[in-house]
Amino acid sequence: MNLFNVYPLFNINPVKAQGSFLWDDKGEQYLDFYGGHAVISIGHNHPYYQNKLKEQLGKISFYSNSVQNELQTELAEKLGKLSGYEDYNLFLCNSGAEANENALKLASFHNGKSKVLYFSGSFHGRTSAAVSVTDNPEIVAPVNYSGRFIKSEWNNVEQLEAIFETQGSEISSVIIEGIQGVGGIMIPTVEFVTKIKELCEQYDAVLILDEVQSGYGRSGYFFAHQEFSIRPDIITTAKGMGNGFPIGGVLIHPEFQASNGLLGTTFGGNHLACAAAIAVLDVIKDENLIENARKMGDYIENEIKDFPHITSIRRKGLMIGIELDRNCSEVRSNLLYSHHIFTGNSNDKSVLRILPALNIRKEEADLFSNALKTVLENISIQINV
Ligand SMILES: Cc1ncc(COP(=O)(O)O)c(C=O)c1O
């Protein structure tokens, strides 16, 4: 059997990882400044994380959600404390798309309405409702289309108000990323976010904050939206939550009523996943990684801001978008093949997406900025955006 060929692959086969580094099957070392799409939050194979998982493997790895699981309670308590959402309830699942799918469903159960407002540039996952609120027609299949999903322009308050004026009574929820990741590190304005919150309250629509990529300390806040002092009705999370172990979560305002069978999953919240997620929270707290994300983000921006070919830097903490005066693919390949540094791209072809682990050190930041400087100084003249 062959693999279903849906991923364009780099010809690199990592077999070992530690901290911010990977090693391939030939023993070559790579610096990881992308974390496999923002997944690596506390660094690869953190010893505390490894021990927690090993310990858990020696006890029990899985039983279904039909029995007590104290690890889920511990995870919910720790997540509530560290995120500042102690009064919210937690539903555990397995991925970002699944978290958003459940959030959209829960909103609709809650207010009985069916339309969803989403934004240009958004990415919310590939399951049915999640992909319908994702702004990429290439990954939306005919089976996903319906008239229920309304797109509004990012950071455009007037358009938002106009849509609510005509369809507000039918809108069940608004879904927005804390910071758009796949869209090219797009940061919402405070005016935009505040208006969304206000309109949701006015029209009884549920505000869903997708913090799958921007959450878990990446932005220098536990959740990126916390910079704006708004409290959404539902928050979704995944990626950095398990540092590579698949887990997702939906944080739900206490006014939402749970009932048996309303939501469910076989694997969500299993013992191993919870052990991984608890370890991540312990490390983020004990090693002050949110503070480190702020500090190292500032440091990197300061180091690279005057490099040639950079037209702007969009950034919060260690969620960094470096906009170039050209398509970033040549720079990205150069960083990877000549300097052994993993970085990411985005739907905005000129934006290099940088998402290192939250515990990177100055030495690692310097490796990256020195390499970027060399690449940008030696870039071909041609502008090819
Ligand atoms: C903001 C956001 N939401 C949801 C998802 C989907 O997450 P997953 O791939 O775990 O389903 C992603 C993935 O990139 C994302 O960036």
TrEMBL record:
GO terms for molecular function: identical protein binding; pyridoxal phosphate binding; transaminase activity. Gene3D superfamilies: Aspartate Aminotransferase, domain 1, Type I PLP-dependent aspartate aminotransferase-like (Major domain). Keywords: Aminotransferase, Pyridoxal phosphate, Transferase. CDD domains: OAT_like. It holds the Pfam family Aminotran_3. It comes from the Bacteria. Its cofactor is pyridoxal 5'-phosphate. InterPro entries: Aminotrans_3, Aminotrans_3_PPA_site, Class-III_PLP-dep_AT, PyrdxlP-dep_Trfase, PyrdxlP-dep_Trfase_major, PyrdxlP-dep_Trfase_small. Belongs to the class-III pyridoxal-phosphate-dependent aminotransferase family. This is Acetylornithine aminotransferase. It comes from Chryseobacterium defluvii.
